[in-house]
Amino acid sequence: MLTVSRTLSIPETELVERFLRADGPGGQHVNRTESAVELRFDVAHSPSLPDVVRARLLARRDRRLTADGVLVIQGRRFRDQARNRDDVRERLAEIIRGVLVPPKKRVATKPTRASKERRLVGKQQRGKIKQTRSRKPDFE
Protein backbone atom coordinates (compact mmCIF):
# COMPACT_ATOMS: atom_id res chain seq x y z
CA MET A 1 0.00 0.00 0.00
CA LEU A 2 1.46 3.36 -1.09
CA THR A 3 0.24 6.09 1.24
CA VAL A 4 -0.05 9.44 -0.55
CA SER A 5 -1.97 11.39 2.10
CA ARG A 6 -4.19 10.70 5.08
CA THR A 7 -7.18 10.26 2.80
CA LEU A 8 -5.57 8.68 -0.26
CA SER A 9 -3.57 5.49 -0.63
CA ILE A 10 -2.86 3.30 -3.66
CA PRO A 11 -2.90 -0.51 -3.38
CA GLU A 12 0.09 -2.53 -4.56
CA THR A 13 -2.00 -4.20 -7.26
CA GLU A 14 -2.22 -0.92 -9.21
CA LEU A 15 1.55 -0.44 -9.31
CA VAL A 16 3.53 -2.35 -11.94
CA GLU A 17 7.27 -2.53 -11.34
CA ARG A 18 9.85 -3.68 -13.83
CA PHE A 19 13.51 -4.07 -13.02
CA LEU A 20 16.22 -3.38 -15.56
CA ARG A 21 19.95 -2.93 -15.75
CA ALA A 22 21.13 0.51 -14.82
CA ASP A 23 24.01 2.40 -16.34
CA GLY A 24 26.49 4.30 -14.24
CA PRO A 25 28.88 3.35 -11.44
CA GLY A 26 29.13 -0.17 -10.08
CA GLY A 27 32.07 -1.84 -11.78
CA GLN A 28 31.65 -5.27 -13.35
CA HIS A 29 28.73 -6.02 -11.03
CA VAL A 30 26.56 -3.44 -12.84
CA ASN A 31 26.34 -5.71 -15.89
CA ARG A 32 24.78 -8.56 -13.89
CA THR A 33 22.28 -6.86 -11.59
CA GLU A 34 18.97 -5.25 -12.43
CA SER A 35 19.00 -2.35 -9.98
CA ALA A 36 17.04 0.25 -11.99
CA VAL A 37 13.27 0.35 -11.47
CA GLU A 38 10.52 1.36 -13.88
CA LEU A 39 7.21 2.04 -12.13
CA ARG A 40 3.98 2.17 -14.13
CA PHE A 41 0.76 3.55 -12.69
CA ASP A 42 -2.42 3.62 -14.79
CA VAL A 43 -3.85 7.02 -13.90
CA ALA A 44 -6.73 6.84 -16.37
CA HIS A 45 -8.18 3.57 -15.02
CA SER A 46 -7.20 3.70 -11.34
CA PRO A 47 -10.20 3.10 -9.04
CA SER A 48 -8.37 4.51 -6.01
CA LEU A 49 -8.00 8.04 -7.43
CA PRO A 50 -10.89 10.50 -7.07
CA ASP A 51 -12.21 11.83 -10.40
CA VAL A 52 -10.99 15.37 -9.71
CA VAL A 53 -7.44 14.22 -8.95
CA ARG A 54 -7.43 11.91 -12.00
CA ALA A 55 -8.51 14.79 -14.25
CA ARG A 56 -5.80 17.08 -12.87
CA LEU A 57 -3.13 14.41 -13.30
CA LEU A 58 -4.16 13.70 -16.89
CA ALA A 59 -4.30 17.43 -17.68
CA ARG A 60 -0.67 17.93 -16.66
CA ARG A 61 1.81 18.29 -19.48
CA ASP A 62 4.18 15.65 -18.22
CA ARG A 63 6.43 13.72 -20.58
CA ARG A 64 6.24 10.72 -18.26
CA LEU A 65 2.52 10.37 -18.99
CA THR A 66 1.74 8.17 -22.02
CA ALA A 67 -1.12 8.66 -24.45
CA ASP A 68 -3.02 5.84 -22.69
CA GLY A 69 -2.87 7.68 -19.36
CA VAL A 70 -0.12 5.58 -17.80
CA LEU A 71 2.47 7.37 -15.66
CA VAL A 72 5.94 5.86 -16.15
CA ILE A 73 8.66 6.78 -13.65
CA GLN A 74 12.19 5.42 -13.88
CA GLY A 75 14.57 5.26 -10.94
CA ARG A 76 18.27 4.62 -11.35
CA ARG A 77 19.63 7.14 -8.87
CA PHE A 78 21.06 4.56 -6.44
CA ARG A 79 23.12 1.42 -6.84
CA ASP A 80 20.74 -0.96 -5.09
CA GLN A 81 17.28 -1.99 -6.17
CA ALA A 82 15.52 -1.43 -2.83
CA ARG A 83 16.55 2.23 -2.62
CA ASN A 84 15.54 2.81 -6.25
CA ARG A 85 12.14 1.23 -5.52
CA ASP A 86 11.57 3.49 -2.53
CA ASP A 87 12.72 6.52 -4.53
CA VAL A 88 10.34 5.82 -7.41
CA ARG A 89 7.39 5.26 -5.09
CA GLU A 90 8.10 8.48 -3.20
CA ARG A 91 8.32 10.40 -6.48
CA LEU A 92 4.93 8.99 -7.55
CA ALA A 93 3.44 10.04 -4.21
CA GLU A 94 4.91 13.56 -4.65
CA ILE A 95 3.38 13.88 -8.12
CA ILE A 96 -0.03 12.87 -6.81
CA ARG A 97 0.31 15.15 -3.76
CA GLY A 98 1.00 18.02 -6.13
CA VAL A 99 -2.44 17.72 -7.74
CA LEU A 100 -4.43 16.98 -4.57
CA VAL A 101 -4.79 20.68 -3.78
CA PRO A 102 -6.82 22.54 -6.42
CA PRO A 103 -4.96 25.40 -8.11
CA LYS A 104 -5.89 28.92 -7.05
CA LYS A 105 -8.07 30.90 -9.40
CA ARG A 106 -6.29 33.85 -10.96
CA VAL A 107 -7.83 37.19 -10.09
CA ALA A 108 -7.66 39.54 -13.06
CA THR A 109 -6.05 42.87 -12.23
CA LYS A 110 -5.31 45.99 -14.23
CA PRO A 111 -1.93 47.70 -14.31
CA THR A 112 -1.71 50.82 -12.18
CA ARG A 113 -1.38 54.26 -13.72
CA ALA A 114 2.16 54.62 -12.35
CA SER A 115 3.25 51.30 -13.87
CA LYS A 116 1.84 52.35 -17.25
CA GLU A 117 3.77 55.63 -17.06
CA ARG A 118 6.98 53.83 -16.07
CA ARG A 119 6.57 51.50 -19.04
CA LEU A 120 6.08 54.42 -21.46
CA VAL A 121 9.07 56.31 -20.06
CA GLY A 122 11.21 53.20 -20.46
CA LYS A 123 10.05 52.78 -24.04
CA GLN A 124 10.95 56.41 -24.81
CA GLN A 125 14.41 55.98 -23.32
CA ARG A 126 15.07 52.82 -25.32
CA GLY A 127 13.86 54.55 -28.46
CA LYS A 128 16.25 57.46 -27.91
CA ILE A 129 19.17 55.08 -27.42
CA LYS A 130 18.36 53.28 -30.66
CA GLN A 131 17.94 56.58 -32.47
CA THR A 132 21.43 57.73 -31.45
CA ARG A 133 22.90 54.48 -32.74
CA SER A 134 21.45 54.86 -36.22
CA ARG A 135 22.34 58.52 -36.92
CA LYS A 136 24.97 59.25 -39.50
CA PRO A 137 27.79 61.64 -38.68
CA ASP A 138 27.33 65.32 -39.77
CA PHE A 139 30.84 65.74 -41.21
CA GLU A 140 30.34 63.56 -44.32
Determine the oligomeric state from the structure: single chain
How many H/I helical runs?
A: 3
**CATH class term:** Alpha Beta
Count of separate structural domains: 1
Mean pLDDT: 84
Explain what you see.
It is built from 3 helices and 5 strands, in the order E-E-E-E-H-E-H-H. It has helices at 51-59, 81-100, 113-134, and strands at 2-3, 9-10, 15-20, 36-42, 70-75. It has 140 residues and is of the alpha+beta class. The longest helix is centred in the C-terminal third of the chain and has 22 residues, at 113-134. It has a single domain, classed as Double Stranded RNA Binding Domain (2-Layer Sandwich). A hairpin with a 5-residue loop joins strand 1 (2-3) and strand 2 (9-10). Helix content is 36%, strand content 16%. This is Alternative ribosome rescue aminoacyl-tRNA hydrolase ArfB.
Condensed summary:
The protein is an alpha+beta fold and 140 residues long. 36% of the residues lie in helices and 16% in strands. Strand 1 and strand 2 form a beta hairpin.
Topology, pairings included?
Elements: E1 2-3, E2 9-10, E3 15-20, E4 36-42, H1 51-59, E5 70-75, H2 81-100, H3 113-134
Descriptive key words:
140 residues; alpha+beta; Double Stranded RNA Binding Domain; 3-stranded antiparallel beta sheet; 36% helix; hydrolase
